[in-house]
Specification:
Largest sheet of chain A: none
Largest interface: A-B, 24 and 24 residues
Oligomer: heterodimer
Structural class of chain A: mainly alpha
Largest sheet of chain B: none
Number of domains of chain A: 1
Number of helices of chain A: 3
Distance between the termini of chain A: 52 Å
Strand content of chain B: under 5%
Order of helices and strands of chain A: HHH
């Protein structure tokens, strides 16, 4: 379930990034974070399905909660990147004006 | 168990390569800014740095974000499942000597596949972006 939730988050973020002009709020970074995890879990699920067998999608409450947590953690990581890049960018602008 | 360690190793390597490439590109741009008569033109140097307008540091930053993003979210999943702890030895499989070969096998199979797949997707992304950029530039030249 966490794979599905992350993949959905990646698709939604990509649509938002495509619609927003000039990569506003660095949405491309958030897209790449979610897509990176989606691709890795995709390989993990496929290999586990063929090697170990069992269900391809784990649809449980625990997996759903994990999916939501992972998406929130991605958002937090993106927020931290925005904050740091904003600070560094602001600092560079100040020093270049001096 | 610890499959994300392999993409993490690749992410560290890509981060280092990206820094080196960035420095080289900055050096080329600095040389351009101190251009004198008789030296290579700005357009030629820019062409040397990037064939299509997308610099290599930009392309590598895409791969870097894909890898670090994936590694970060996979690490959270591993913490959730109790496979990773925040204190030494960090990987719970390391506590039991019988689990170590299983962990290494998982790293070699799952981890390597993940790293290869993400890199292939990135290569596709770069190919598409370069192709689009070339078409865009051609359209621009034709108009002017």
């Amino acid at each position: 379930m966490y794979f599905i939730i992350t993949a959905l988050a990646a698709i939604v973020t990509t649509i938002l990034w495509y619609k927003m002009p000039q990569n506003k709020y660095r949405l491309s970074t958030l897209c790449l974070i979610y897509w990176g995890a989606t691709f890795m879990w995709f390989v993990d699920h496929i290999m586990a399905f063929f090697i170990e067998g069992g269900e391809f999608f784990e649809i449980t409450m625990d997996a759903t909660l994990l999916g939501i947590t992972v998406v929130l953690c991605g958002l937090v990581a993106w927020g931290i990147i925005l904050f740091i890049k904003g600070k560094v960018g602001g600092f560079k602008n100040i020093t270049s004006q001096m | 168990m610890a499959c994300f360690v392999v993409p993490m190793a690749e992410a560290i390597l890509v981060s280092v390569v990206k820094k080196v490439v960035e420095k080289k590109e900055q050096k080329v741009l600095f040389e351009d800014s101190t251009l004198t008569e008789g030296t290579v033109s700005f357009a030629e140097k820019e062409n040397k740095a990037s064939q299509t307008g997308i610099s290599w540091s930009q392309k590598l930053s895409w791969l870097n974000t894909l890898l670090w993003g994936g590694v970060f979210l996979l690490a959270i999943e591993h913490i959730w499942h109790g496979e990773v702890i925040l204190w030494p030895p960090f990987l719970t499989a390391m506590k039991n000597p019988n689990d170590i070969p299983i962990m290494l096998h998982e790293m070699a199979s799952f981890g390597t596949s993940m790293a290869v797949f993400v890199t292939l997707v990135w290569a596709g992304m770069v190919f598409v972006a370069e192709h689009k950029m070339k078409r865009f530039l051609c359209k621009g030249f034709n108009r002017s």
